[in-house]
Design goal:
The complex is a heterotrimer. By secondary structure, chain A is an all-alpha fold. Chain A is about 75% helix and about 0% strand. Chain A contains 15 helices and no strands. In chain A, helix 4 packs across helix 15 and helix 12 runs antiparallel to helix 15 (about 275-305). Chain B folds into 2 domains: about 40-155 and about 320-375, Periplasmic binding protein-like II (D-Maltodextrin-Binding Protein, domain 2, 3-Layer(aba) Sandwich); about 155-315 and about 405-439, 3-Layer(aba) Sandwich (D-Maltodextrin-Binding Protein, domain 2), CATH 3.40.190.10. Chain B is built from 18 helices and 10 strands. A 6-stranded mixed sheet of chain B has the order 2-1-3-9-4-10, sandwiched between helices. The longest helix of chain B is centred in the first third of the chain and has 37 residues, at about 1-40. Residues about 1-35 of chain B have low confidence and may be disordered. Chain C is mostly helical. Chain C folds into 2 domains: about 5-60, no CATH class; about 70-280, MetI-like (MetI-like fold, Orthogonal Bundle). In chain C, about 75% of the residues lie in helices and about 0% in strands. Chain C is globular and about 80 Å long. Chains A and C meet through helix 2, helix 3, helix 5, helix 6 and helix 7 of A and helix 1, helix 4, helix 5, helix 6 and helix 8 of C.
């Protein structure tokens, strides 16, 4: 105490600076703005959200503590089951396709040709443009009556009857998967391309001299070296996709007959749409443990790959 | 010692945060105060009218008039009808939002705690204009208070192509579901199916599925509020619907919202659809753009009819719109003044005429208005508000009925069935969902 | 890497690449063509005869004019720009400081804190918006840009921190040590030596944060209500989907014009954007 008192006596500024010489104090000072903002706008609302999910609150009616009743209710809710299955299916399928197509595109770009810079800049556009806006373009392309995709297939003689893109439950799911993949492939491609470029060509040459064929060179040289980057890209993508909202909200609103609801859209429909705030919160919260487990598993795996 | 230090730093950080908040609030306060002092404003949120001329009339003529007459500036915001409910919730939760919000059907019951009682205005308007329809009263008032001020009823009728129906031998509109299905089958064979949405959309979806259910004798609940959805009658209706859908309907309808059938009808891909009068009104507005395949203006080939009869009778369910005055509103008095002003006969008539019959007022006096006699095609809409049945039938249209409606349970039951779920399962599903609500 | 005949190059590289580019860019082409196509041509069923969807002979500006004359589109653009810029600046400030602390300083629980910040990235927005709505009500920020400016950093800060940690880690320790031997304080070494070196990283995170804010939808949908407070995605969604049967022209025009600012910012800083993305992955 005495030391601090003395320091204050010396005048404020030097004392503060001296304190900042201590790494711990400096760290504290540097982390404070972040901690305040995240604490106020994430940690506190998160806590409140958990409390909300344990209450009977509706819009305009404060409600009281009901324990796990809401979770029990959604657990027995057939729409919630569909939602859960949808979310896993949506995340899984899109991730596989984004990875496969993204990697393919990255390999196509990983060489020298004229116009490479321009192409690289252009293909990132789907990822840059706000999701809601580009999804509207897709919605118009999938429109039941005026679909340009149907027109093209019809003109090419591939179909005779219309394909009911958004009206059929499976096709509606396929449609939103297509759009998500469309939006995600550029991100995968560009980051994987960066990963590819760090792999020294000499390794390939060495393998080629050893007589390895292109496919086996890819499998034994490129792929293992690309693994760490790939894992992080997948991690980011899974987080984004699992909690996706905008795309489904714009495309189908969860329809037809709840066939394309994801956690976020269903939580929105119940919480904000119908005003059942507590149930909406319970559904959102139900997504958290899944997400947490997926991420922990991936992080552990990444660490293992990196330390290997 | 370390402890005291840390705490003081935390306090300091907290203080700094509070100070910055105060600063922000101050900026906001200075930014807004003058505006408040100068003028009274009311933020009015309603749906985007399917008759665009009416919104234009409000914006360009009526609201400036209101500003002159009352000294209140009205900020009119129009959004897609499906977005109204989320906005109500968001407004109530964040304590800021539109002062007047349009509600559909018995949604008013869901927000009973968060709205201001409008009994006084509603009763006055009812008395002055020939009495309020029972339907409007039931949907907006729980007997103790008016949670919304009834605005208008959007009549839902089947709009159909006269010549196309004649071509398959139907000189007048089919009277029963069986006949309608036969006609529809022939129409679909010619590539001109019936269009009907079974999607999650406020107007045309429940506007079809509820009366369809009732006409077969199916009901969500009995008058005491006991769930009786799982009945022989409901099952019959679902089974018929499965075949009807396949035989006669445009299968794209599962993904439609309230606007898709308008576009499909106008681009001549469907022969009939349940809708407000907006399709017909649009063809009247642009006779040169919409032509039949023979080149005649399309509006000469459109007629309206109520939904066909079922074994239990003929029913209709028409979208009722009302305006809720929100409790969080800081402009309740000007909002009330405005409501009174726009519901005076002289003002309301202007708006009503611009609707050309798309909207039916909620009071009896307007039945004699010349809008109805001007155009015989519009005549079926005249009594929509009088004959409508409220959701939740045979129980009261209370908050539970409103929750069932906004969860699209009845609509989803049919949607699931036509997508291939066995009829029994679809009915059981709906019954179980309703029981969760009615308890 | 490319060996073999010309046809091989076409089959294995050029044709697939052309297909990729075509599919990735087609929706934008469709946006453009819809924007300039008159209504009479737009609403023709998919199986109509004589329908030429990919071109129009009489382009029109009516949809764009509608956007400017009948809606608050310019106002939405301005709002979005303002909100995106301010929240980006706030997030960068926090992210740079936190990233520096987590990457270069030794203090207890550093690892735990880093993980905690990352975990906040996982909390679903749909869980937060109701409680956040109440916080916003308490601060009386409902229906003002500040409701978004203060909430957007919740997902931007973790991202910026994560990115900046990567950049700071890559800067050699010796740089600071030299400065400190010359007598600079830790604070000065950070502000004058390390941060300037990390400017490309800051630029990259800034651009990404900017595009993320421009993209945000849920909070804007819930927290804003007046027509003249809305952001572009929310304004376009709520006010251009019209009861009127013809809204696709103005809607596509709105989507097109609403995308242009991000596209411009992006085109100036492509390299930074790309290095930010790839940096996020390596970090």
């Amino acid at each position: 105490m005495a030391v601090t008192a003395l320091a204050t006596a010396e005048g404020k500024r030097p004392s503060r600076l001296r304190r900042l010489e201590d790494e711990r104090w400096l760290a504290l000072a540097l982390l404070t703005p972040t901690a305040v903002l995240l604490g106020l706008f994430i940690a506190y609302p998160f806590f409140e959200g958990v409390m909300l999910s344990l209450s009977s609150t509706r819009v305009g009616e404060p409600g009281h503590f009901v324990g796990l009743k809401n979770f029990h209710k959604i657990w027995n809710d057939s729409i919630f089951h569909t939602t859960m299955w949808n979310t896993f299916w949506y995340t899984g399928v899109t991730t596989v396709f984004k990875l496969a197509l993204g990697l393919w595109l990255a390999l196509l770009l990983n060489r020298h040709f004229r116009g490479k810079a321009i192409i690289r800049a252009f293909i990132l556009l789907p990822f840059i443009i706000p999701t809601v806006l580009s999804t509207f373009a897709w919605k118009w392309m999938f429109d039941p009556t005026f679909s340009v995709i149907n027109w093209t297939l019809f003109q090419l003689g591939l179909i005779t009857a219309r394909i009911n893109w958004l009206g059929d439950p499976d096709l509606a799911m396929t449609s939103i998967i297509v759009i998500n993949v469309w939006r995600g492939v550029p991100f995968f491609a560009i980051t994987l391309l960066a990963g590819l470029q760090t792999i020294s060509p000499e390794l390939h040459e060495a393998a080629a001299i050893d007589g390895a064929r292109p496919w086996s060179r890819f499998w034994h040289v490129t792929w293992p070296l690309l693994m760490p980057v790939t894992l992080v890209v997948v991690l980011f993508s899974v987080i984004q996709t699992f909690a996706d909202f905008q795309l489904v909200y714009v495309m189908t609103g969860g329809g037809p007959a709840n066939a394309t609801h994801l956690f976020a859209t269903y939580a929105y429909q119940l919480g904000i749409g119908t005003g059942l705030l507590a149930e909406g919160a319970a559904i959102s919260l139900a997504m958290f443990p899944f997400l947490f487990i997926i991420v922990v598993v991936q992080l552990l795996y990444i660490r293992r790959v990196e330390t290997r | 010692m370390a402890k005291t230090k840390r705490r003081s730093v935390l306090k300091l950080a907290g203080g700094a945060a509070a100070a910055s908040m105060g600063g922000m609030a101050a900026i906001l306060a200075t930014g807004r105060m003058p505006a408040f002092a100068q003028q009274r404003t009311v933020h009015w949120l309603k749906w985007v009218d399917f008759v665009p001329a009416s919104d234009a009339l409000l914006r360009k003529e009526m609201l400036p008039e209101a500003e002159k007459a009352l000294g209140i500036k009205i900020n009119l915001e129009t959004v897609n009808g499906n977005d109204l409910q989320p906005r109500v919730t968001a407004g109530i939760q964040s304590g800021a939002g539109p002062d007047l919000i349009m509600a559909f059907n018995n949604q008013t019951y869901l927000y009973a705690n968060s709205v201001v009682d409008l009994t006084e205005i509603a009763e006055a308007v009812g008395k002055a204009q020939g009495g309020m329809y029972k339907y409007a009263r039931a949907v907006c008032s729980d007997g103790k208070m008016f949670m919304g001020m009834p605005w208008a009823v959007i009549g839902g009728m089947i709009a159909y192509r006269k010549s196309w129906f004649e071509e398959v031998g139907a000189t007048k509109f089919p009277e029963t579901w069986e006949q309608y299905r036969e006609v529809g089958k022939k129409l679909k064979a010619k590539g001109r199916p019936i269009g009907q949405t079974l999607g999650h959309t406020f107007g045309d979806a429940p506007g079809f599925t509820y009366p369809y259910l009732w006409s077969w004798g199916g009901m969500e609940v009995d008058p005491s509020g006991k769930v009786i959805m799982n009945s022989k009658e409901t099952l019959e209706s679902v089974k018929f619907m499965q075949a009807f859908w396949k035989d006669a309907h445009d299968e794209g309808g599962l993904a439609w919202d309230d606007t898709n059938n308008n576009r499909a009808f106008l681009s001549q891909t469907i022969s009939a659809t349940l809708n407000g009068a907006s399709i017909y009104i649009e063809t009247l507005r642009k006779p040169t753009q919409y032509k039949t395949e023979k080149g005649a203006p399309m509006h000469t080939d459109i007629l309206h009819s109520p939904l066909p009869k079922g074994p239990a009778g003929q029913f209709g369910f028409h979208l009722l719109q009302s305006h809720m005055l929100m409790k969080y509103s800081k402009n309740q008095d000007p909002a009330k003044e405005f409501l009174k002003w726009i519901h005076t006969e002289k003002n309301f008539e202007k708006w009503f005429v611009s609707q050309k019959g798309f909207a039916t007022p909620c009071t009896e006096k307007w039945e004699g208005h010349k809008v109805w006699s001007d155009d015989p095609v519009m005549a079926p809409f005249k009594v929509a508000a009088k004959l409508g049945q409220a959701p939740g039938h045979a129980g009261p249209p209370n908050a539970k009925a409103a929750e069932a409606l906004s969860k699209y349970i009845v609509t989803d039951m049919y949607a699931k069935a036509v997508q291939g779920m066995p009829a029994e399962d679809a009915v059981k599903w709906a019954d179980a969902e309703l029981k969760k609500i009615y308890g | 890497m490319i060996e073999g005949a010309l046809w091989r190059r076409w089959v294995f590289y050029n044709i697939p690449l052309i297909l990729f580019v075509f599919v990735l860019l087609f929706p934008f082409y469709w946006m453009i063509i819809t924007t300039f196509r008159p209504d009479g041509e737009l609403y023709r069923p998919w199986n109509a005869v004589n329908y030429m969807p990919f071109w129009t002979n009489d382009p029109t500006l009516e949809h764009i004019l509608y956007l400017f004359e009948e809606t608050n589109f310019m106002r939405w653009m301005f709002n979005t720009m303002f909100i995106a810029l301010v929240s980006t600046v706030i997030s960068l400030f926090c992210g740079v400081l936190a990233g520096y602390a987590l990457a270069r300083l030794n203090f207890p629980y550093a690892g735990g804190l880093g993980t905690a910040i990352f975990v906040t990235y996982l909390v679903p927005q749909t869980l937060l918006f109701i409680p956040l709505a109440e916080i916003i009500r308490n601060f009386q920020l409902g229906d003002t840009p500040w409701s978004l400016i203060l909430t957007y950093p919740t997902f931007l800060i973790p991202f910026c921190t994560w990115l900046m940690m990567g950049y700071f880690k890559a800067i050699p320790k010796e740089l600071e040590e030299c400065a400190r031997i010359d007598g600079a304080s830790r604070w000065k070494a950070m502000v004058y030596i390390v941060i300037p070196v990390a400017v490309p990283g800051i630029l990259s995170s800034g651009i990404i944060a900017f595009t993320l804010s421009w993209n945000e939808f849920i909070y804007a949908l819930v927290f804003l209500s007046s027509p003249d407070q809305k952001t572009v995605p929310v304004g376009v969604t709520s006010e251009l989907i019209r009861g009127d049967v013809f809204f696709w022209g103005p809607l596509m025009a709105g989507a097109l014009l609403g995308s242009i600012p991000v596209a411009i910012v992006y085109s100036f800083f492509v390299e930074h954007y790309v290095s930010g993305l790839t940096g996020s992955v390596k970090g």
